[in-house]
Design brief:
The protein is built from three helices and no strands. By secondary structure, it is mainly α. It has a domain of about 30 residues. It is elongated.
Length: about 70
């Protein structure tokens, strides 16, 4: 053993997260479930292509009206 070795440092945030994970072992599974609800979506590429092609180009000055 090295006499100059310091004990391993863990921050308060890491200690809190470790304690939280031991108190609630299902926490990570719940986080993944919540993520899948919001972010993990199946994208319909054909519909997305249609949406992008249907956009109307915005004028240079948004509030300008067309006078003929």
């Amino acid at each position: 053993m090295n006499i100059f070795r310091r004990p391993d440092y863990t921050s308060e945030a890491t200690q809190f997260l470790d304690q939280l994970k031991t108190q609630k072992p299902m926490l990570e599974a719940e986080q993944l479930k919540g993520r899948s609800l919001l972010w993990d979506k199946v994208i319909d590429r054909l519909a997305l292509k249609g949406f992008r092609s249907a956009k109307v180009k915005q004028q240079a000055y948004v509030y300008q009206t067309q006078h003929e």
